[in-house]
Design a protein that fits this description.
Shape: elongated
Number of strands: 5
Largest sheet: 5 strands, antiparallel
Number of helices: 3
Length: about 180
């Protein structure tokens, strides 16, 4: 009766390294090129609109038929925080409404309203972010240009899309009363 007995001794690591798999012949993904310097700009245009050293607010909306009304209301609330008691609210609302209407009519999926102030003046700029086609932008709506507190207005096209803007005096001269 011969029984085979397995001898088990203490566990000792092998004296040779385990066999590793051979390296892959093709890398899984080609290494990505590393730029030598920071890229300046793909189109050679200046950076996006930057407002510094003054109060500013940006409001974004879908370009639909309700955008002008929503934008005017939210812009009025934003400017109310800036404490301009003499700002003609009617002119401000009409300016924002007219500029947003023009941006929505020109096309695009979204509209942004940029507000900034300096030296008792409030800037309202509306962009429609439509960069395809870069047609000439239409003029500022007539109802905005004739407002009493609008000191300057205009429109232009740049890398951000079409833009309409108006500069309103937040401390207008009082209306002249005829005696």
């Amino acid at each position: 009766m011969s029984e085979v007995v397995e001898a088990r001794g203490p566990k000792v690591p092998p004296s040779f390294p385990p066999k590793s798999p051979p390296p892959q012949k093709k890398p899984v993904e080609a290494p990505r090129p590393q730029p030598a310097t920071k890229p300046k700009s793909l189109t050679g245009v200046p950076p996006r609109l930057v407002v510094t050293s003054r109060r500013a607010r940006v409001l974004a909306f879908r370009a639909d038929r309700w955008a002008a009304r929503k934008a005017a209301g939210q812009a009025a609330l934003a400017v109310a925080e800036w404490d301009y008691p003499l700002l003609d609210e009617h002119d401000f609302l009409k300016a924002v409404h007219g500029l947003v209407d023009a941006a929505v009519a020109a096309g695009g999926k979204r509209v942004s309203v940029h507000l900034a102030d300096q030296d008792a003046k409030v800037l309202v700029m509306v962009l429609n972010h439509l960069t395809d086609g870069q047609d000439d932008v239409g003029p500022v709506p007539g109802e905005v240009a004739v407002l009493r507190t609008v000191e300057a207005c205009g429109s232009h096209t740049d890398h951000d899309g079409h833009a309409w803007w108006a500069l309103l005096n937040a401390q207008p001269r009082p209306k002249k009363h005829l005696v």
